[in-house]
Amino acid sequence: MSTTSPYRRFRRSLNRVYAPIENRLPTGWVLLTPASALLGFVVAIPLLTALALSFTEYNLTLSTFPTFVGIQNYVQGVVTDGQFLNALINTAVFVVAAVSLEFLLGFGLALLLWEKFPGRGIFRAVLLTPMFIAPVAVGLMFRFIFNSQMGVMPELLGFVGLGDLGWFTDPTLAMLVIVLGDVWQWTPYMVILLLAGLQALPSEPYEAARIDGASSFEQFYEITLPLMRPVIAATLIIRIIDASKVFAKIYTMTSGGPGVATETLAWYIYKTGFQSYHLGIAASQSVTVLLMIIGLGYVQTYVIGQGDEYA
Amino acid sequence: MNMRKNLIRYPLLALASILALAPTLWMFFTSIKPRELAYQPDAMSFTPTLGAYVEVFTQSAFMLFFFNSLLVGIITTVVSLLVGVLAAYSFARFNTGGLKTQFGFLSAMIFPPVVIIIPMYFIFFEFGLINTRAAIILGHLTFGIPLAIWFLIGFFEELPRELEEAAMIDGDTRLEAIFFILVPSIKEGVIAAGILVFVLSWNNFIYPLILAGNEATRTLPIAVANFNTFQGLLISRMAAGIIVIVLPMFLLAFYVQNYLVQGLAKSGVDG
User: Fold this and answer.
1) pLDDT digits (tens, 9 = 90+) for B142-169
2) Domain-embedded: residue A53
3) How far is CA A201 from CA A194, A206, A255, B233, B268, in A?
4) What is the CATH number of domain B60-226?
5) A269 within a domain of the structure (yes/no)
6) Which among B250, B258, B261 has the least Cβ separation from residue A129?
7) Is the Cβ pair B114, A245 closer than 8 Å?
8) pTM
9) How many A-B residue pairs are in contact by the CB < 8 A criterion?
10) Looking at the 3D structure of chain A, how many domains does it have?
11) What residues does A56 pair with on adjacent strands?
12) Min distance A108 CA to chain B CA atoms (Å)
């Protein structure tokens, strides 16, 4: 092969830059540098800026540079703001309802898919499809399906004598449709995470149990559940964190309505920042949410720590 | 014994599969109805038409939005994989900075986008980056890079050290050993990670919504959300838009699902 091909030359010049760096600096940190630099720019700097902005008045309509106002934003936008509390409660209700349904359905399906059987690959492929759909599309689909005039759901419920329940005009039902959309989309993710955990379990305990004549139910309760505890905890954390970010479905399905019944934290912060243009207040709300997530993280690490001891 | 299990298994899985497919199939069904029937759920007999798809692509700059989504997705994926491979290798081989550093990198996935996007809007506004594709890509890197690292660490941990040591004795630098020896031997993992990042970028809504609202940089999720007009005659167009954004992801999903289960088992859900 010719040594002067552009590809060879590129490799050589890359090495000329890289080799001296690796010789002088610790390799691990050198290789980590590109990721650190990019994440620093898109995550760390914005988070610090959010902290700074949260103490300023910054209004998009005024197009002036932010001015310092102390803790006023936190008083106005968090502590004394009933809407913020409302969004916090709605988010909690949504997360608890959606994630517990997803977990029960997901664990059941993962158990059904655990052993090898004819057709497993096809069932798994079909069951996973919803998680690859854009949340915006899921929102529009569910809004259309449950729509009073054009939806197929009121039509179907008509056959059992229920008819149109006014899915988007009743506060509880509106929340229920969003929960259903989320459950439909993300139960597959639960399935895949739990299935990965199940397939990594050792087979010895089950062989021993079978020799002892343990029933399927006993095996599940005595072996599977305890061994799966760390995986279950991690799966729940992943989904709780994800579910608490819900935004696109709210945007497309209800815009927070009826009234403020389905306003979640992400939606409310977006509304404060980009519909009312109070970026400073939105920043203070963001920082508050961030602190709550970190706090929740500590609680959960503690809970998992307990689980590890158990397993 | 097995017979009895299958007697429960197949009906339940069949029911779940129907529920998983029904909403998407209903949208497809709606998209090929003539527009004056699309908003009538009980209109079941009709001559299928692709008119809605023609409308979607001719009555808006949909091709441009499609291209924007593709471009943003590809660049996000390539950058995430490039820096993610290096970082994952660094964590797997050198345990750089210990578990705390590793957790710090992965925690970027935990923060809600809306928390990052408020200051990001301010920074990008000051830098004149608002309404550029670069802004969307930078936004998508907030989840692309941590996801690639998280997914790939497990794959690198399984490779024997001898693999790159042999290459380095033969005169390759470490960088060459990583990209030309190690990456090809964990090809499946890298492809799966790349597809995951691409899917998340393709489907992402909040970053393009806030960082790039104008027509030149609009991506598909924004374009589809704009079809959110519940006027009966436009329903078939909305349905067609949804099918266009969903279909490429379904193809990727069928391709990637095997690797995905393997990969998640490796990356250790409890890690």
Assistant:
1) 999 999 999 899 899 989 988 888 888 8
2) no
3) 11, 10, 43, 53, 12
4) 1.10.3720.10
5) yes
6) B250
7) yes
8) 0.91
9) 288
10) 2
11) A68
12) 10
